Automatic annotation (TrEMBL):
Domain Gfo/Idh/MocA-like oxidoreductase C-terminal: 158-399
Gene3D superfamilies: Dihydrodipicolinate Reductase, domain 2, NAD(P)-binding Rossmann-like Domain
Organism: Streptomyces beijiangensis
Record lineage: Bacteria, Bacillati, Actinomycetota, Actinomycetes, Kitasatosporales
A single GO molecular function term of this UniProt record: nucleotide binding
InterPro entries in UniProt: Gfo/Idh/MocA-like_OxRdtase_C, Gfo/Idh/MocA-like_OxRdtase_N, Gfo/Idh/MocA_oxidoreduct, NAD(P)-bd_dom_sf
Entry-linked PANTHER family: CONSERVED EXPRESSED OXIDOREDUCTASE (EUROFUNG), OXIDOREDUCTASE
Protein name: Gfo/Idh/MocA family oxidoreductase
Residues covered by the Gfo/Idh/MocA-like oxidoreductase N-terminal domain: 27-146
Family: Belongs to the Gfo/Idh/MocA family.
Amino acid sequence: MTDTSHVSTSHVSTAPADSSVHTRDLRLGVIGLGLRATLAREAHQPGEGSVVVAAADTSPGMFGRAREWFGEDVHVYPGHREMLAAEELDAVFVITPDHTHEALAVELLEAGVAVFVEKPLAITTEGCDRVLEAARTGGARLYVGHNMRHMPVVRVMRDLIKSGEIGEVKAVWCRHFVGHGGDFYFKDWHADRRNTTSLLLQKGAHDLDVIHWLAGAYTERVSALGGLTVYGQIADRSGQAPGAVMPDWYDPENNWPPLSHTGLNPVVDVEDLSMMVMRLEGGVHASYQQCHYTPDYWRNYTVIGTEGRLENFGDHGESAEVRVWKRRSGYRADADLVVPMPPPGKGGHGGSDPMLVAEFLCFVRSGGATDTSPVAAREAVAAGVAATQSLRADGLPVTVSRVAPDLADWFANGQN
């Protein structure tokens, strides 16, 4: 008989219990008003703890969005330095293209401002280390937007592993079917490796972080293969209108099959198919596959331990569930344990975005432990960078560089 009573599908915050107590609203700024700036919109709660008072974007055409989201009183600036010079801010959201994260985060942290950086932390391992060091030097709190650590399906898998349901983890496999890849990643700056390093890093940073979290270990050595196997055949590289963002051109009903896409970015030099294998600390092995032209869009994780295996079917939504097999048999769809997911919460990514923002705001105000980790974010980038190097060297194995132990210790101690 299936028993799910010991598994929690609800989010339990690790933030201090008194985090809701405040004497004034946190004053927040946001740099970048593109697609993921909806995270700052989640944080705009005037009178309830936090308010976005300032926004910066290099495109004045985005200022209307700031006023719509944050009210007519929000102060808008053409650059982040103008905003910092004019405003007293408790924290800033950095929601800009990936290649700008490093410089912006370093400048803000060195100025002593708490920072939320959308993932990935940076597009190079060295850039990540520079951001981590700036947080220590500036004494400012750093938080990275790995919202998947708040997704119920991921939390259930981790709870099952921690409770010993499958014994000691020995292998983790992840298949990522990026069904909307042409719309999401090949019609704007994402398609240019100068801005992302690779989609194996940019898109894979989420999954690599989850693999590390489920395994309880970071990647030591990688080998990868892949290529630009479909979108490289499309000749229309006319791009999109200046100032447009992905929802402006996203069309889930059309653009199928993938070769029917038009208006790709003028530069397309990132891979649309990537496969990597990893050896993690402690002898855990893992694999990650990413394809940007599948008809379906979801992630599938399989975790194998010494006493069983688990797998998710669906990654968010009411139909998603985690199944666990614990006895020998041939093929059978009926697992020994099935944990259904709760109905999706309000907000992006099945309700994980509001949880992410709430944890960040609590961290800014009160400090304490968080489920996300800047060091873990760095390790996900390091694995993605190493895998990209391997892929572009025809699978040559690459050793992943480690974060400096003293820097890792500083973050492990709560950034104190």
